[in-house]
Specification:
Strand order of the largest sheet: 20-19-22-27-24-25
Oligomer: single chain
Largest sheet: 6 strands, mixed
Helix content: under 10%
Structural class: mainly beta
Shape: elongated
Number of helices: 5
Distance between the termini: 9 Å
C-alpha cells in the first residue's frame, strides 16, 4: 500500500509542477453560554466647538471613515502643540495614531480630542487597528515653512504588526498543526437552536512551519459548521473576547446589513437570529471593515440547511471548506496588502484551514459506498474547481441547481466550479479499493496545499 501511495503522490507533484428533523421546538445548545467580559471604558470625549483646518491654525479636525481619513494630508502654521478633534464617521471603532505614539480613539459615530506635538519636519499618522492602515487609513500633518513639503511621505508612522513579513520562512520550531476533523456534523435536533460563538484570537499552525495569529468564531478555523433543517430558527450568541471589533454575516439569513450585521465591540455580546428559509450550503463570515482582512484571517464557516424531508442516508458525510492564506510574519495576522492584490498570489490554498492535512492523514471512505461531501469555497479571492481523482459525481446540488443520480440522460459531473461564497453538495461512490485525491483542479494551487486523499478500503487496488 505504501508503494501505491508513494507513486500517487509523486504523480500529483509532477502534475502540480507542470503548471433529520424532530417535531420538538425546545431550544438546544451546542455550546454553553459565555458570560460577557467587561466592556472597555469609553474613549470618546465631548465634542468641542468645531475648528476649521488651514495653514494658519494650531488646531485640526480629522474625520475617519471606512477605510480612510479626511483630510489625509493637512498642515499647520508652526511646529508645536496641535489640538486634534477626531471625528469617527465610520461604522466601526477607529483610532488616529501618530508617529510619536500619541493615539486618539473614537467609537463609530463619536468624537474624541487630544493634543499632539508636531515637529518642523511634520508628522505621519495612521489607524493602528490591524488591516486599517494597509487598507488606506494613513495621513500626515505638514508644517508650513518646515523641512517637509506638503504631500510628504505617506508611509505609516507606526508599522502594522505584520510589516516585517516578506517572503515567509518556515520555522522548524513551530508547533505541529492540529488535524481538523472533516466529518460533517449531525443534523441538530429540534426546530429552534441556540449556539454560542465566542470570538477568540489565537495562534494557529496553518502549514508545517507557519503560524498565523488568527481571529476565530468558536476558537477554530473554519468556524463551527451548523446543520439544520429547512424552516428552523437559529440564534447565534456572540461574545467578543478579542481586542478589536467584529461582526457576523450569515448568508443563510435574510436581514438588512444595518439590522444584525452590527459592530460587536471588545467585551460586548450580540445575538444574531435567523430562520433557515432556503436549503443549501451557505457561508458565514465577519463583515467588519476591511471584510477581506477578517475573512482572510480565519473568520468564516459553513451552514448546511437540509431540504424538505431531509437528505437520504449515505455511508460517509464530510464537510470541506477551501480557503487561502496570505502570510505575514510568524505569529501575526495575515498580510492585508498581499490579500488585497489585484492578482491574488496566496502562500497556501487549503482545505479546512491547514495545508496538506488530508494528504498526510487520508480520510477513510467505504469502497462502493455512498460518500457525500458538503463543499464550500470561502476564498476570499480564489475560485475552486473541486475534483476527486478517479471518481465521477453522480449527484450534485450547487447553489440550488441539481444533477440527480439516475437521470434520463445519464449525465455526470467531473468537477464542481465554485466562486468565493458558493457551496455545493456532491456524492460519489469509489469503485475499488485505492487512493482518491481531492484537489482544486487549478493545479497551480495543488502544490500550495489544496490536496487531500480519500482512502477506499485499505487503499491498495491490488489486494
Amino acid at each position: 500500500m505504501r508503494s501505491t501511495i508513494g507513486r500517487l503522490l509523486i504523480t500529483l507533484a509532477a502534475v502540480a509542477a507542470l503548471a433529520g428533523c424532530s417535531a420538538t421546538t425546545a431550544p438546544t445548545w451546542t455550546f454553553g453560554p459565555v458570560p460577557p467580559a467587561a466592556a472597555p471604558a469609553a474613549s470618546a470625549a465631548p465634542m468641542p466647538t468645531p475648528v476649521g483646518q488651514n495653514a494658519s491654525t494650531s488646531a485640526v479636525e480629522i474625520h475617519a471613515f471606512d477605510l480612510g481619513f479626511k483630510p489625509a494630508e493637512l498642515s499647520v502654521a508652526a511646529a508645536g502643540p496641535v489640538a486634534v478633534t477626531f471625528v469617527n464617521d465610520g461604522a466601526t471603532i477607529h483610532n488616529i495614531t501618530f508617529a510619536d505614539g500619541t493615539a486618539i480613539t473614537a467609537d463609530a459615530g463619536k468624537t474624541a480630542t487630544g493634543t499632539v506635538s508636531v515637529p518642523a519636519a511634520g508628522l505621519t499618522f495612521l489607524c493602528s487597528i490591524p488591516g486599517h492602515a494597509d487598507a488606506g487609513m494613513k495621513g500626515a500633518i505638514a508644517v508650513t515653512g518646515g523641512n517637509a513639503m506638503p504631500g510628504m511621505s505617506m508611509m505609516p508612522s507606526t508599522p502594522p504588526a505584520n510589516a516585517a513579513a516578506a517572503a515567509p520562512v518556515a520555522d522548524p520550531k513551530a508547533p505541529k498543526y492540529t488535524l481538523f476533523d472533516a466529518t460533517a456534523p449531525a443534523l441538530m435536533t429540534g426546530t429552534v437552536h441556540d449556539v454560542d460563538f465566542p470570538i477568540i484570537e489565537k495562534d494557529m499552525t496553518v502549514a508545517d512551519g507557519f503560524v498565523v495569529h488568527v481571529w476565530t468564531f468558536g476558537g477554530q478555523v473554519p468556524g463551527p459548521t451548523l446543520r439544520v433543517h429547512l424552516g428552523d430558527t437559529v440564534r447565534v450568541h456572540l461574545t467578543n473576547q478579542t481586542t478589536m471589533s467584529h461582526s457576523i454575516d450569515f448568508h443563510a439569513s435574510q436581514t438588512a446589513m444595518n439590522s444584525q450585521m452590527v459592530e460587536i465591540k471588545p467585551g460586548a455580546t450580540f445575538t444574531y437570529t435567523f430562520k433557515a428559509d432556503y436549503a443549501g450550503v451557505w457561508m458565514y463570515h465577519c463583515g467588519t471593515a476591511p471584510a477581506l482582512h477578517h475573512i482572510a484571517n480565519g473568520m468564516f464557516g459553513m451552514v448546511i440547511v437540509e431540504p424538505k424531508g431531509g437528505l437520504p442516508k449515505v455511508d460517509k458525510e464530510l464537510a470541506i471548506i477551501q480557503n487561502e492564506w496570505y502570510l505575514g510574519a510568524q505569529k501575526q495576522p495575515v498580510d492585508y496588502t498581499k490579500a488585497n492584490a489585484a492578482a491574488p498570489a496566496p502562500d497556501f490554498v487549503v482545505f479546512n484551514g491547514v495545508a496538506n492535512q488530508y494528504k498526510d492523514n487520508p480520510i477513510a471512505v467505504p469502497t462502493n459506498g455512498r460518500v457525500r461531501v458538503f463543499v464550500l469555497d470561502v476564498g476570499p479571492n480564489i475560485d475552486s474547481s473541486f475534483h476527486v481523482v478517479g471518481t465521477i459525481f453522480d449527484t450534485v446540488t450547487k447553489e440550488g441547481i441539481q444533477l440527480v443520480k439516475g437521470n434520463a440522460g445519464g449525465w455526470g459531473s467531473q468537477a464542481v466550479d465554485l466562486s468565493p461564497a458558493q457551496g455545493a453538495i456532491i456524492e460519489f461512490s469509489p469503485k475499488e479499493d485505492g487512493m482518491y485525491p481531492m484537489v482544486t483542479h487549478a493545479f497551480n494551487f495543488v502544490g500550495k496545499g489544496a490536496i487531500g486523499i480519500f482512502m477506499a478500503g485499505d487503499g491498495d487496488p491490488k489486494n
